Amino acid sequence: MQAKPVQIAVIVIGLLIGAVGIFLAVSKNSGPDLADKMIFADVKTGDLYAVSIKGRSVTIPYRHPETNERTLLPVTFNDDNEQWELKSRYLSALESIDGLHSSVDAGSGKLTIDADAKPKTID
Q1: What's the pLDDT at 20?
Q2: Residue 11 class from Cβ within 10 Å (0-12 exposed, 13-18 middle, 19+ buried)?
Q3: Which residue in 29, 84, 89, 96 has the most C-beta neighbors within 10 A?
């Protein structure tokens, strides 16, 4: 029994689709792009720090590189009002940090940091 041209065409198309599927699966990115740094603010001084989190986890509040106190909390820049803000989920962490929090409004999480402030990079 010989294969008909239609049967050969179906087999060839199936093999091509399978080969393309394997190629796309192998060449695809290995997963979603994850952040490799976080921006922290010292709630006592208002200094900004970019902390590398690539391949590791961090404890929040994060330790200040000079004072070794846990005074650094994650912040984001709000483009709408052009202001640095404490991430809302970390507002309650202010209670665990001793001393004055002169650079942050405890109610709103807004920081008194210049909008164009550049974070210092630490590892």
Answers
A1: 92
A2: exposed
A3: 84
